[in-house]
Design brief:
The protein starts with 7 loop residues before the first helix and ends in a 19-residue tail after the last helix. The longest helix is centred in the middle third of the chain and has 15 residues. It is mainly alpha-helical and 128 residues long. It is globular. The chain has one domain. This is Phage terminase, small subunit.
Length: 128
């Protein structure tokens, strides 16, 4: 079974697009795909907070990922609210699968590189 196709924006964030230029050179990303947007009105307060957290953690998600994010928000809100004991094993597994489907499993996150600019730390001069 072939590997899943990495979204272009995720590839740019993780550095894959730079590392494998030929693989991503001919990709045409639809300009009509908009950002994830605000949480849906039907989500309760905890689910909306989970939605916001997911949007911050996974910045490559777009409007086309919305149903996954809403489902993940609902399950994650249950998980963190203390209702874990009532969650079925199937629900926890579904949460894990949804996070993985959005590219959020640890092996994917470890491929994302961030700038390590330590010169911006104002307290650094006091600890040298």
């Amino acid at each position: 079974m072939p590997r899943k196709r990495t979204p272009t924006e995720k590839a740019e964030i993780s550095g894959q697009a730079t590392h494998n230029k030929a693989r991503f050179a001919d990709r045409k990303q639809s300009k009509k795909v908009s950002s994830l947007g605000e949480p849906s009105a039907f989500l309760d307060e905890n689910e909306q907070a989970a939605f916001e957290g997911i949007r911050k953690i996974y910045p490559w998600l777009k409007e086309s990922d919305r149903i996954h994010v809403e489902m993940t928000s609902s399950l994650y809100a249950q998980f963190v609210s203390g209702a874990r004991a009532e969650m079925s094993l199937a629900a926890m597994n579904q949460l894990r699968l949804l996070i993985s489907a959005m590219g959020g499993n640890p092996s994917d996150i470890s491929k994302i590189t961030m700038d390590d600019d330590e010169s911006d730390d104002p307290a650094a001069k006091y600890f040298q």
